[in-house]
Structure to design on (311 residues):
């Protein structure tokens, strides 16, 4: 903003409100962005975690007064203010209004960051560039407002706070409406059949589950539900047993149980070894790449065990 102020004859006192407006507007839009990301994650949920991500929104509310201004400052410093400098210095001869040139400059800087994300993190460039361009609209308009109608920093932050509440409420309403209208594609687990399930499924740490035609199963280093939902310990078992399909309203599943003769010597020892518990693996993945998964313990506090089918 310093170069832009010198070029247009605007001193630091005039440029400062525009910088504050960029930071405040960038922070104000983040709760709505997080709410939209929450709805998108809920629609794309492959493992039925449900409303577990809502805990993240609760944390956002608790830490918003400290977290949002910092994130707004980082956003402004990385994209908005450099984009304004590009517009005021490099694009000064483009016969557009100042706000339009700044929006173009912010978009160009966002495209540079999208290239960085594509190279270093494998992000999809068009979607990343489009999202960064969209995140630059409100801060650029706020800078134009501060330029045309100068006001104090406190007034800018109060206006940003009010706009943030409005945007957040709109995002909470728009998310489920967009999902209901089909604008956001909702994940649907593939249905299971005996033909699709039969085969060899593999997981982490050498886990192998062979589901044979006729309902026979062979387990190698397979985790088994010990029957205690809150436990953090897994029971890993080997042996032969049986399986059957478990149709469901949302997800189909496969129930796997070790045969009593293969469950170890629990009866002779007089103790339960946990391997004879029945574990229901739910359908996940896609039609082309099916998965079976199960949660041990609280789904909100653990990751799923996932099995993938051999081709």
């Amino acid at each position: 903003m310093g170069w832009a102020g010198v070029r247009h004859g605007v001193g630091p006192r005039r440029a400062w409100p525009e910088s504050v407006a960029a930071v405040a507007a960038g922070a104000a839009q983040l709760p709505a962005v997080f709410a939209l990301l929450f709805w998108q994650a809920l629609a794309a949920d492959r493992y039925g975690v449900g409303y577990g991500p809502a805990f993240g929104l609760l944390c956002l509310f608790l830490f918003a007064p400290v977290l949002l201004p910092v994130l707004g400052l980082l956003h402004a410093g990385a994209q908005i203010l450099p984009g304004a400098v590009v517009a005021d210095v490099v694009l000064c001869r483009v016969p557009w209004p100042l706000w339009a040139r700044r929006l173009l400059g912010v978009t160009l800087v966002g495209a540079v960051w999208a290239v960085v994300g594509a190279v270093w993190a494998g992000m999809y460039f068009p979607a990343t560039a489009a999202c960064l361009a969209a995140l630059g609209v409100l801060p650029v308009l706020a800078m134009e407002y501060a330029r045309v109608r100068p006001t104090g920093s406190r007034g800018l932050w109060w206006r940003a706070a009010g706009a943030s509440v409005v945007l957040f409420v709109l995002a909470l309403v728009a998310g489920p409406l967009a999902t209901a209208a089909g604008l956001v594609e909702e994940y649907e687990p593939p249905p299971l059949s005996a033909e699709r399930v039969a085969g060899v499924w593999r997981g982490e740490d050498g886990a192998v589950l062979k589901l044979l035609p006729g309902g026979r199963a062979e387990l190698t280093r397979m985790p088994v539900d010990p029957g205690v939902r809150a436990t953090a310990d897994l029971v890993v078992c080997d042996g032969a047993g049986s399986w059957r399909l478990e149709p469901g309203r949302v997800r189909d599943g496969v129930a796997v149980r070790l045969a009593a003769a293969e469950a170890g010597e629990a009866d002779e020892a007089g103790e339960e070894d946990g391997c004879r518990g029945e574990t229901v693996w739910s359908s996940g993945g896609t039609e082309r790449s099916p998965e079976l998964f199960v949660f041990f313990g609280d789904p909100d506090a653990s990751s799923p065990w996932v099995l993938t089918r051999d081709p």
Notes: Residues 2-180 form one domain. The chain has two domains: 2-180, 194-309. The first helix runs from residue 2 to 7. Confidence is low (pLDDT under 50) at residues 1-12, 261-272.
